[in-house]
Amino acid sequence: MDETKQMMPSDDRDRGILTPDDRKFLKGKKEFSSEQSERDARYRIRKRVKNSILDFSILLHHLDERDRKQVFSKHMAKSSDDEISSEKLREFVESTMFSQGISDAISLLYLGVSDAGDSFEAVLKEGVAGAEESKGYLVDSVSVDIDVSRGKPDMEDLVSKLNSGEPLSEEEIRAVINSGQFDIDAESLDMLLQQISSQLSVESEDVEINLNYEPDDE
Question: What is the Cα–Cα distance from 65 to 124, expressed in whole angstroms?
Answer without folding.
Answer: 21
